[in-house]
Queue: 2 jobs
Job 1
Amino acid sequence: MSTSSPRIIVVDPQQKLYHLVRAALELMERHPRLIETYSSDDALLELRAIPPDLLITSQTLLEPSSGTILALMAKREMAALPVIVVGEENDPVLDEETIAQSPFQYLRRPIAPEAFIRSLRIALDGPEAAPREAAPEEIVPVPPIEYSGAIQRILFDLMRNVNAMAVILADRNGKVLGYDGAAGYVDRDLIAAALASGFSSLIKMLPTLGEQPRVLSYYDADRTTLFGLSLGLHHFVILVFDRRAPSAALGNVKRFGATAINELLELVGEV
Protein backbone atom coordinates (compact mmCIF):
# COMPACT_ATOMS: atom_id res chain seq x y z
CA MET A 1 0.00 0.00 0.00
CA SER A 2 3.05 2.25 -0.08
CA THR A 3 2.19 5.66 -1.51
CA SER A 4 3.97 9.00 -1.63
CA SER A 5 0.68 10.91 -1.26
CA PRO A 6 -1.38 8.97 1.29
CA ARG A 7 -4.88 10.08 2.24
CA ILE A 8 -4.91 10.27 6.04
CA ILE A 9 -7.81 11.09 8.35
CA VAL A 10 -6.69 12.77 11.58
CA VAL A 11 -9.20 12.83 14.45
CA ASP A 12 -8.37 15.14 17.34
CA PRO A 13 -10.70 17.65 19.03
CA GLN A 14 -7.67 19.39 20.59
CA GLN A 15 -6.04 19.87 17.16
CA LYS A 16 -2.59 18.69 18.32
CA LEU A 17 -2.13 15.61 16.16
CA TYR A 18 -2.40 17.35 12.80
CA HIS A 19 0.90 19.23 13.15
CA LEU A 20 2.69 16.17 14.54
CA VAL A 21 1.53 14.01 11.62
CA ARG A 22 2.40 16.65 9.04
CA ALA A 23 5.90 17.20 10.46
CA ALA A 24 6.63 13.46 10.60
CA LEU A 25 5.47 12.89 7.02
CA GLU A 26 7.58 15.80 5.78
CA LEU A 27 10.61 14.12 7.34
CA MET A 28 9.58 10.95 5.48
CA GLU A 29 9.36 13.01 2.26
CA ARG A 30 5.69 12.15 1.83
CA HIS A 31 3.08 14.58 0.55
CA PRO A 32 -0.09 13.53 2.36
CA ARG A 33 -3.67 14.61 1.86
CA LEU A 34 -4.59 15.24 5.49
CA ILE A 35 -8.27 15.39 6.43
CA GLU A 36 -8.66 16.90 9.89
CA THR A 37 -11.82 15.97 11.81
CA TYR A 38 -12.86 16.45 15.41
CA SER A 39 -15.35 13.64 16.12
CA SER A 40 -16.01 9.97 15.43
CA ASP A 41 -19.06 10.74 13.30
CA ASP A 42 -17.16 13.13 11.02
CA ALA A 43 -14.28 10.67 10.70
CA LEU A 44 -16.60 7.82 9.70
CA LEU A 45 -18.35 10.06 7.15
CA GLU A 46 -14.98 10.88 5.57
CA LEU A 47 -13.99 7.21 5.64
CA ARG A 48 -17.18 6.13 3.87
CA ALA A 49 -16.96 8.92 1.29
CA ILE A 50 -13.41 8.16 0.11
CA PRO A 51 -11.45 5.25 1.63
CA PRO A 52 -8.30 6.58 3.33
CA ASP A 53 -4.86 4.98 3.53
CA LEU A 54 -4.60 5.58 7.29
CA LEU A 55 -6.68 6.77 10.25
CA ILE A 56 -4.94 8.46 13.19
CA THR A 57 -7.03 9.38 16.23
CA SER A 58 -6.46 10.74 19.69
CA GLN A 59 -7.45 8.40 22.51
CA THR A 60 -9.85 10.90 24.11
CA LEU A 61 -12.59 12.47 22.01
CA LEU A 62 -15.30 14.98 22.92
CA GLU A 63 -18.15 12.51 22.57
CA PRO A 64 -18.67 9.54 24.93
CA SER A 65 -16.92 7.15 22.54
CA SER A 66 -13.14 7.04 22.68
CA GLY A 67 -10.47 6.82 20.03
CA THR A 68 -10.13 3.10 20.67
CA ILE A 69 -13.85 2.59 19.98
CA LEU A 70 -13.55 4.68 16.82
CA ALA A 71 -10.61 2.50 15.77
CA LEU A 72 -12.74 -0.65 16.14
CA MET A 73 -15.65 0.95 14.24
CA ALA A 74 -13.31 2.00 11.44
CA LYS A 75 -11.88 -1.52 11.21
CA ARG A 76 -15.42 -2.89 10.84
CA GLU A 77 -15.95 -0.52 7.91
CA MET A 78 -12.53 -1.28 6.35
CA ALA A 79 -10.84 -4.36 7.76
CA ALA A 80 -7.53 -3.62 6.04
CA LEU A 81 -7.37 0.03 7.15
CA PRO A 82 -4.31 0.80 9.32
CA VAL A 83 -5.24 2.74 12.47
CA ILE A 84 -3.03 4.51 15.01
CA VAL A 85 -4.42 5.63 18.39
CA VAL A 86 -2.40 8.27 20.25
CA GLY A 87 -2.90 8.72 23.99
CA GLU A 88 -2.03 11.82 25.98
CA GLU A 89 -0.11 11.66 29.25
CA ASN A 90 -3.32 12.09 31.28
CA ASP A 91 -5.38 9.55 29.30
CA PRO A 92 -6.31 6.19 30.87
CA VAL A 93 -3.47 3.70 30.41
CA LEU A 94 -4.21 0.68 28.23
CA ASP A 95 -2.85 -2.56 29.66
CA GLU A 96 -0.34 -4.62 27.69
CA GLU A 97 -2.82 -7.42 26.95
CA THR A 98 -5.35 -4.98 25.48
CA ILE A 99 -2.69 -3.37 23.32
CA ALA A 100 -1.40 -6.75 22.12
CA GLN A 101 -4.89 -7.92 21.11
CA SER A 102 -6.00 -4.64 19.52
CA PRO A 103 -6.21 -4.35 15.71
CA PHE A 104 -4.51 -0.95 15.82
CA GLN A 105 -1.18 0.57 16.82
CA TYR A 106 -1.19 2.36 20.17
CA LEU A 107 1.23 5.15 21.06
CA ARG A 108 1.34 7.31 24.16
CA ARG A 109 2.80 10.78 24.56
CA PRO A 110 5.52 11.80 24.94
CA ILE A 111 6.55 9.98 21.77
CA ALA A 112 10.10 9.86 20.44
CA PRO A 113 10.05 11.14 16.83
CA GLU A 114 11.70 7.92 15.62
CA ALA A 115 8.98 5.84 17.29
CA PHE A 116 6.19 7.84 15.65
CA ILE A 117 7.84 7.74 12.23
CA ARG A 118 8.32 3.99 12.62
CA SER A 119 4.60 3.57 13.32
CA LEU A 120 3.75 5.61 10.23
CA ARG A 121 6.07 3.47 8.10
CA ILE A 122 4.44 0.29 9.40
CA ALA A 123 0.97 1.70 8.71
CA LEU A 124 1.74 2.97 5.21
CA ASP A 125 4.38 0.53 3.96
CA GLY A 126 3.94 -2.61 6.07
CA PRO A 127 5.89 -4.09 9.02
CA GLU A 128 8.83 -5.06 6.82
CA ALA A 129 9.52 -1.33 6.23
CA ALA A 130 10.43 -0.76 9.89
CA PRO A 131 12.34 -3.61 11.55
CA ARG A 132 12.06 -3.46 15.31
CA GLU A 133 15.18 -2.59 17.27
CA ALA A 134 14.67 -0.54 20.40
CA ALA A 135 16.65 2.67 20.05
CA PRO A 136 18.24 4.25 23.15
CA GLU A 137 16.09 7.37 22.88
CA GLU A 138 12.94 5.20 23.00
CA ILE A 139 14.06 3.54 26.25
CA VAL A 140 15.55 6.45 28.23
CA PRO A 141 12.74 8.62 29.65
CA VAL A 142 12.78 12.40 29.26
CA PRO A 143 13.48 14.15 32.59
CA PRO A 144 10.73 16.69 33.36
CA ILE A 145 11.46 20.41 33.16
CA GLU A 146 9.00 23.17 34.07
CA TYR A 147 9.10 26.38 32.05
CA SER A 148 8.87 28.80 34.95
CA GLY A 149 10.92 30.72 37.48
CA ALA A 150 14.65 30.88 36.84
CA ILE A 151 14.45 28.74 33.69
CA GLN A 152 11.97 31.11 32.07
CA ARG A 153 13.99 34.15 33.16
CA ILE A 154 17.23 32.78 31.68
CA LEU A 155 15.59 32.02 28.34
CA PHE A 156 13.77 35.36 28.24
CA ASP A 157 17.07 37.17 28.86
CA LEU A 158 18.72 35.08 26.13
CA MET A 159 16.00 36.07 23.68
CA ARG A 160 16.51 39.76 24.47
CA ASN A 161 20.32 39.57 24.39
CA VAL A 162 20.37 38.12 20.87
CA ASN A 163 17.40 40.24 19.66
CA ALA A 164 15.38 37.17 18.70
CA MET A 165 11.66 37.37 17.95
CA ALA A 166 10.85 34.39 20.19
CA VAL A 167 12.37 31.61 22.27
CA ILE A 168 10.96 28.08 22.61
CA LEU A 169 11.92 25.27 25.00
CA ALA A 170 11.16 21.73 23.79
CA ASP A 171 12.12 18.15 24.59
CA ARG A 172 13.59 15.52 22.26
CA ASN A 173 10.11 14.12 21.62
CA GLY A 174 9.16 17.40 19.96
CA LYS A 175 6.91 18.56 22.82
CA VAL A 176 6.87 22.33 23.40
CA LEU A 177 7.41 22.99 27.12
CA GLY A 178 7.19 26.78 27.04
CA TYR A 179 7.94 29.90 25.05
CA ASP A 180 8.28 33.68 25.22
CA GLY A 181 8.19 36.55 22.78
CA ALA A 182 6.17 36.55 19.56
CA ALA A 183 6.08 32.75 19.28
CA GLY A 184 2.43 32.92 18.25
CA TYR A 185 3.49 34.05 14.76
CA VAL A 186 5.17 30.71 13.99
CA ASP A 187 4.03 27.09 14.14
CA ARG A 188 5.76 26.16 17.41
CA ASP A 189 4.70 22.51 17.37
CA LEU A 190 5.81 22.00 13.78
CA ILE A 191 9.22 23.60 14.40
CA ALA A 192 9.81 21.62 17.61
CA ALA A 193 8.76 18.33 15.99
CA ALA A 194 10.97 18.93 12.95
CA LEU A 195 14.07 19.89 14.96
CA ALA A 196 13.57 17.16 17.56
CA SER A 197 14.72 14.38 15.24
CA GLY A 198 18.20 15.90 15.08
CA PHE A 199 18.58 16.55 18.80
CA SER A 200 17.12 13.18 19.82
CA SER A 201 19.96 11.41 18.00
CA LEU A 202 22.52 12.79 20.47
CA ILE A 203 22.07 9.70 22.65
CA LYS A 204 23.18 7.49 19.76
CA MET A 205 26.26 9.64 19.16
CA LEU A 206 27.62 9.63 22.73
CA PRO A 207 30.22 6.90 22.01
CA THR A 208 31.67 9.16 19.31
CA LEU A 209 31.14 12.63 20.80
CA GLY A 210 31.71 11.95 24.48
CA GLU A 211 29.59 13.06 27.42
CA GLN A 212 27.38 16.17 27.31
CA PRO A 213 27.87 17.35 23.71
CA ARG A 214 26.95 20.96 22.96
CA VAL A 215 25.11 21.27 19.65
CA LEU A 216 24.14 24.39 17.71
CA SER A 217 21.93 24.03 14.63
CA TYR A 218 21.23 26.87 12.21
CA TYR A 219 18.43 27.31 9.66
CA ASP A 220 18.71 30.45 7.54
CA ALA A 221 15.79 31.34 5.25
CA ASP A 222 13.89 34.31 3.84
CA ARG A 223 10.83 34.14 6.11
CA THR A 224 12.33 32.85 9.36
CA THR A 225 15.76 32.07 10.78
CA LEU A 226 16.10 29.43 13.50
CA PHE A 227 18.89 28.55 15.91
CA GLY A 228 18.68 25.38 17.96
CA LEU A 229 20.77 24.83 21.10
CA SER A 230 20.96 21.47 22.85
CA LEU A 231 20.19 21.46 26.58
CA GLY A 232 21.68 18.20 27.76
CA LEU A 233 20.54 15.08 25.93
CA HIS A 234 16.80 15.47 26.29
CA HIS A 235 15.89 19.12 25.68
CA PHE A 236 16.71 21.95 23.32
CA VAL A 237 16.17 25.68 22.95
CA ILE A 238 14.96 27.32 19.73
CA LEU A 239 15.64 30.99 18.96
CA VAL A 240 13.37 32.42 16.27
CA PHE A 241 14.30 35.45 14.15
CA ASP A 242 11.91 37.20 11.79
CA ARG A 243 13.18 36.80 8.24
CA ARG A 244 16.96 36.62 7.83
CA ALA A 245 18.90 37.18 11.04
CA PRO A 246 21.49 39.99 11.12
CA SER A 247 25.10 39.06 10.45
CA ALA A 248 25.98 39.37 14.14
CA ALA A 249 23.28 36.89 15.19
CA LEU A 250 25.42 33.75 14.92
CA GLY A 251 28.16 35.19 17.11
CA ASN A 252 25.64 36.49 19.64
CA VAL A 253 23.84 33.16 19.80
CA LYS A 254 27.14 31.35 20.38
CA ARG A 255 28.19 33.82 23.08
CA PHE A 256 24.97 34.35 25.01
CA GLY A 257 23.63 30.90 24.19
CA ALA A 258 26.60 29.12 25.77
CA THR A 259 26.19 31.19 28.94
CA ALA A 260 22.45 30.51 29.11
CA ILE A 261 22.85 26.77 28.53
CA ASN A 262 25.48 26.56 31.28
CA GLU A 263 23.15 28.38 33.68
CA LEU A 264 20.27 26.09 32.76
CA LEU A 265 22.36 22.95 33.22
CA GLU A 266 23.26 24.14 36.71
CA LEU A 267 19.53 24.27 37.47
CA VAL A 268 18.32 21.07 35.78
CA GLY A 269 21.49 19.00 36.11
CA GLU A 270 23.66 17.36 33.47
CA VAL A 271 20.83 15.41 31.83
Job 2
Amino acid sequence: MAKLSKLALYALMVCVASAHAQVMKVVAGHNPWPPYIENDGSGLVSDILRAAFDSQGIELEIQTAPFSRMLIFLEERKVDLIAALWWTERRHKTILFSQPYFHNELAVVSHKDSHADFRGAKSLRYKTVAAIRGYAYHELLESIEQVKVIDVHSLHACLEMVHKRRADFAIADVLAFAHEQKNSPQLSDLIAHMPVLLSWPLHIGVNRAHPHAEEIIVRFNLGLDELKKTGRYQQIVAKYLPEDELQ
Protein backbone atom coordinates (compact mmCIF):
# COMPACT_ATOMS: atom_id res chain seq x y z
CA MET A 1 0.00 0.00 0.00
CA ALA A 2 2.82 2.38 0.90
CA LYS A 3 4.47 1.66 -2.44
CA LEU A 4 1.21 2.34 -4.28
CA SER A 5 0.75 5.59 -2.36
CA LYS A 6 4.23 6.74 -3.37
CA LEU A 7 3.49 5.91 -7.01
CA ALA A 8 0.20 7.80 -6.83
CA LEU A 9 1.93 10.81 -5.25
CA TYR A 10 4.62 10.73 -7.94
CA ALA A 11 1.98 10.59 -10.69
CA LEU A 12 0.17 13.54 -9.12
CA MET A 13 3.39 15.57 -8.98
CA VAL A 14 4.08 14.83 -12.66
CA CYS A 15 0.57 15.98 -13.59
CA VAL A 16 0.91 19.19 -11.60
CA ALA A 17 4.33 19.92 -13.09
CA SER A 18 2.97 19.34 -16.60
CA ALA A 19 0.02 21.64 -15.96
CA HIS A 20 2.39 24.46 -15.01
CA ALA A 21 4.97 23.77 -17.73
CA GLN A 22 5.52 26.78 -19.95
CA VAL A 23 4.63 26.58 -23.62
CA MET A 24 7.82 26.20 -25.67
CA LYS A 25 6.34 25.96 -29.18
CA VAL A 26 3.09 26.96 -30.89
CA VAL A 27 1.71 26.03 -34.29
CA ALA A 28 -0.21 28.78 -36.08
CA GLY A 29 -2.45 28.34 -39.10
CA HIS A 30 -3.84 30.55 -41.86
CA ASN A 31 -4.50 30.58 -45.58
CA PRO A 32 -1.90 32.18 -47.89
CA TRP A 33 -2.68 35.93 -47.89
CA PRO A 34 0.26 37.88 -49.35
CA PRO A 35 1.96 40.01 -48.17
CA TYR A 36 0.65 39.04 -44.72
CA ILE A 37 1.23 35.30 -45.15
CA GLU A 38 2.97 33.78 -48.16
CA ASN A 39 2.56 30.17 -49.30
CA ASP A 40 5.60 29.18 -47.22
CA GLY A 41 4.26 30.93 -44.10
CA SER A 42 6.57 33.95 -44.33
CA GLY A 43 5.33 37.56 -44.50
CA LEU A 44 4.26 40.49 -42.34
CA VAL A 45 2.13 38.42 -39.95
CA SER A 46 4.83 35.79 -39.62
CA ASP A 47 7.50 38.41 -38.87
CA ILE A 48 5.43 40.07 -36.13
CA LEU A 49 4.28 36.82 -34.52
CA ARG A 50 7.69 35.19 -34.70
CA ALA A 51 9.42 38.20 -33.12
CA ALA A 52 6.79 38.51 -30.36
CA PHE A 53 6.87 34.83 -29.44
CA ASP A 54 10.66 34.65 -29.76
CA SER A 55 11.00 37.40 -27.15
CA GLN A 56 9.10 35.09 -24.80
CA GLY A 57 11.19 32.03 -25.61
CA ILE A 58 8.49 30.39 -27.72
CA GLU A 59 9.17 28.78 -31.10
CA LEU A 60 6.61 29.49 -33.84
CA GLU A 61 5.62 27.23 -36.73
CA ILE A 62 3.15 28.46 -39.36
CA GLN A 63 1.10 26.10 -41.51
CA THR A 64 -0.99 27.17 -44.51
CA ALA A 65 -4.26 25.74 -45.80
CA PRO A 66 -7.66 27.16 -46.84
CA PHE A 67 -8.97 29.43 -44.09
CA SER A 68 -12.21 27.53 -43.49
CA ARG A 69 -10.16 24.35 -42.99
CA MET A 70 -7.88 26.14 -40.52
CA LEU A 71 -10.89 27.12 -38.43
CA ILE A 72 -11.76 23.42 -38.22
CA PHE A 73 -8.15 22.62 -37.29
CA LEU A 74 -8.37 25.21 -34.51
CA GLU A 75 -11.54 23.62 -33.16
CA GLU A 76 -9.93 20.17 -33.31
CA ARG A 77 -6.71 21.59 -31.77
CA LYS A 78 -4.60 20.47 -34.73
CA VAL A 79 -3.17 23.99 -34.62
CA ASP A 80 -2.70 26.10 -31.50
CA LEU A 81 -3.87 29.38 -32.98
CA ILE A 82 -5.08 31.26 -36.03
CA ALA A 83 -2.33 33.68 -37.04
CA ALA A 84 -4.58 36.50 -38.30
CA LEU A 85 -8.16 36.82 -37.12
CA TRP A 86 -10.86 39.48 -36.96
CA TRP A 87 -12.94 39.70 -33.79
CA THR A 88 -16.68 38.98 -33.97
CA GLU A 89 -19.20 38.19 -31.25
CA ARG A 90 -19.77 34.78 -32.81
CA ARG A 91 -16.08 33.90 -32.70
CA HIS A 92 -15.59 35.40 -29.23
CA LYS A 93 -17.78 32.65 -27.76
CA THR A 94 -15.21 29.94 -28.56
CA ILE A 95 -11.97 31.83 -29.28
CA LEU A 96 -9.68 33.82 -26.99
CA PHE A 97 -8.26 36.88 -28.77
CA SER A 98 -4.97 38.72 -28.29
CA GLN A 99 -4.38 42.44 -28.34
CA PRO A 100 -4.61 43.76 -31.92
CA TYR A 101 -1.24 43.78 -33.67
CA PHE A 102 -2.25 45.40 -36.98
CA HIS A 103 -5.26 47.00 -38.69
CA ASN A 104 -6.78 45.87 -41.98
CA GLU A 105 -8.40 48.39 -44.29
CA LEU A 106 -10.99 46.48 -46.33
CA ALA A 107 -12.13 48.01 -49.61
CA VAL A 108 -14.64 47.02 -52.27
CA VAL A 109 -12.98 46.22 -55.60
CA SER A 110 -14.60 46.42 -59.03
CA HIS A 111 -13.67 46.54 -62.71
CA LYS A 112 -12.51 50.05 -63.69
CA ASP A 113 -14.82 50.25 -66.69
CA SER A 114 -17.88 49.12 -64.74
CA HIS A 115 -18.20 52.71 -63.47
CA ALA A 116 -19.57 51.35 -60.20
CA ASP A 117 -20.97 54.03 -57.93
CA PHE A 118 -19.94 52.67 -54.53
CA ARG A 119 -21.39 54.55 -51.55
CA GLY A 120 -21.13 52.06 -48.73
CA ALA A 121 -22.38 48.56 -47.96
CA LYS A 122 -25.87 49.23 -49.39
CA SER A 123 -24.28 49.61 -52.82
CA LEU A 124 -23.73 45.84 -52.79
CA ARG A 125 -27.47 45.13 -52.88
CA TYR A 126 -28.53 42.94 -55.81
CA LYS A 127 -24.86 42.48 -56.76
CA THR A 128 -22.54 39.48 -56.92
CA VAL A 129 -19.61 39.59 -54.49
CA ALA A 130 -16.61 37.23 -54.51
CA ALA A 131 -15.49 36.47 -50.94
CA ILE A 132 -13.01 34.21 -49.16
CA ARG A 133 -14.75 31.27 -47.51
CA GLY A 134 -14.77 31.57 -43.71
CA TYR A 135 -13.77 35.24 -43.48
CA ALA A 136 -15.62 37.35 -40.90
CA TYR A 137 -16.96 39.87 -43.41
CA HIS A 138 -19.54 37.23 -44.37
CA GLU A 139 -21.54 38.42 -41.35
CA LEU A 140 -21.78 41.87 -42.96
CA LEU A 141 -22.67 40.42 -46.36
CA GLU A 142 -25.42 38.31 -44.79
CA SER A 143 -27.08 41.51 -43.56
CA ILE A 144 -27.27 43.08 -47.04
CA GLU A 145 -30.46 42.57 -49.01
CA GLN A 146 -30.29 40.27 -52.02
CA VAL A 147 -26.50 40.16 -52.29
CA LYS A 148 -25.16 37.02 -53.96
CA VAL A 149 -21.91 35.74 -52.45
CA ILE A 150 -19.52 33.49 -54.35
CA ASP A 151 -17.15 31.74 -51.93
CA VAL A 152 -13.60 31.05 -53.09
CA HIS A 153 -10.39 30.03 -51.31
CA SER A 154 -8.13 33.08 -51.78
CA LEU A 155 -8.02 36.81 -52.48
CA HIS A 156 -6.39 36.16 -55.84
CA ALA A 157 -9.34 33.96 -56.80
CA CYS A 158 -11.75 36.73 -55.69
CA LEU A 159 -9.98 39.28 -57.87
CA GLU A 160 -9.87 36.91 -60.83
CA MET A 161 -13.65 36.53 -60.55
CA VAL A 162 -14.06 40.30 -60.91
CA HIS A 163 -11.42 40.53 -63.64
CA LYS A 164 -13.25 37.86 -65.67
CA ARG A 165 -16.59 39.57 -64.92
CA ARG A 166 -17.97 36.58 -63.07
CA ALA A 167 -18.56 38.81 -60.03
CA ASP A 168 -19.41 42.50 -59.72
CA PHE A 169 -17.28 43.11 -56.65
CA ALA A 170 -14.68 41.60 -54.35
CA ILE A 171 -13.68 42.64 -50.84
CA ALA A 172 -9.95 43.08 -50.32
CA ASP A 173 -7.52 44.40 -47.77
CA VAL A 174 -5.93 47.46 -49.39
CA LEU A 175 -2.34 46.30 -48.81
CA ALA A 176 -3.09 42.79 -50.06
CA PHE A 177 -4.88 44.20 -53.12
CA ALA A 178 -1.87 46.36 -54.01
CA HIS A 179 0.37 43.31 -53.63
CA GLU A 180 -1.84 41.24 -55.96
CA GLN A 181 -1.88 43.97 -58.61
CA LYS A 182 1.90 44.31 -58.45
CA ASN A 183 2.42 40.59 -58.99
CA SER A 184 -0.44 40.00 -61.45
CA PRO A 185 -0.43 42.70 -64.19
CA GLN A 186 -3.75 41.48 -65.60
CA LEU A 187 -5.43 42.78 -62.43
CA SER A 188 -4.48 46.37 -63.28
CA ASP A 189 -7.99 46.77 -64.71
CA LEU A 190 -9.43 46.64 -61.17
CA ILE A 191 -9.92 49.52 -58.75
CA ALA A 192 -10.39 49.72 -54.97
CA HIS A 193 -13.16 52.13 -53.96
CA MET A 194 -12.64 54.68 -51.20
CA PRO A 195 -13.52 55.26 -48.44
CA VAL A 196 -12.87 51.75 -47.19
CA LEU A 197 -15.79 49.49 -46.31
CA LEU A 198 -14.32 48.33 -42.99
CA SER A 199 -11.31 48.97 -40.77
CA TRP A 200 -10.70 45.94 -38.58
CA PRO A 201 -7.99 45.18 -36.01
CA LEU A 202 -6.06 41.96 -36.52
CA HIS A 203 -5.48 39.48 -33.66
CA ILE A 204 -4.25 35.97 -33.04
CA GLY A 205 -6.96 33.62 -31.79
CA VAL A 206 -6.74 30.50 -29.61
CA ASN A 207 -9.48 27.95 -28.97
CA ARG A 208 -10.81 28.64 -25.45
CA ALA A 209 -10.73 24.87 -24.83
CA HIS A 210 -6.96 24.77 -25.44
CA PRO A 211 -5.24 23.87 -22.14
CA HIS A 212 -2.71 26.70 -22.59
CA ALA A 213 -5.00 29.27 -24.23
CA GLU A 214 -4.52 32.01 -21.64
CA GLU A 215 -0.76 31.49 -21.42
CA ILE A 216 -0.36 31.71 -25.20
CA ILE A 217 -2.37 34.94 -25.37
CA VAL A 218 -0.68 36.55 -22.35
CA ARG A 219 2.82 35.76 -23.56
CA PHE A 220 2.07 36.96 -27.09
CA ASN A 221 0.71 40.23 -25.68
CA LEU A 222 3.84 40.65 -23.55
CA GLY A 223 6.04 39.99 -26.57
CA LEU A 224 4.07 42.44 -28.70
CA ASP A 225 4.41 45.16 -26.06
CA GLU A 226 8.15 44.56 -25.93
CA LEU A 227 8.46 44.82 -29.73
CA LYS A 228 6.71 48.19 -29.69
CA LYS A 229 8.82 49.53 -26.81
CA THR A 230 12.08 48.62 -28.53
CA GLY A 231 11.01 49.88 -31.97
CA ARG A 232 11.31 46.41 -33.49
CA TYR A 233 7.59 46.37 -34.36
CA GLN A 234 7.86 49.57 -36.39
CA GLN A 235 10.90 48.20 -38.24
CA ILE A 236 9.01 45.05 -39.23
CA VAL A 237 5.93 46.91 -40.46
CA ALA A 238 8.05 49.42 -42.40
CA LYS A 239 9.35 46.61 -44.63
CA TYR A 240 5.86 46.01 -46.00
CA LEU A 241 4.12 49.39 -46.12
CA PRO A 242 4.44 51.72 -49.13
CA GLU A 243 6.71 54.72 -48.50
CA ASP A 244 3.82 57.20 -48.66
CA GLU A 245 2.12 55.43 -45.73
CA LEU A 246 5.25 55.68 -43.60
CA GLN A 247 5.54 59.45 -43.89
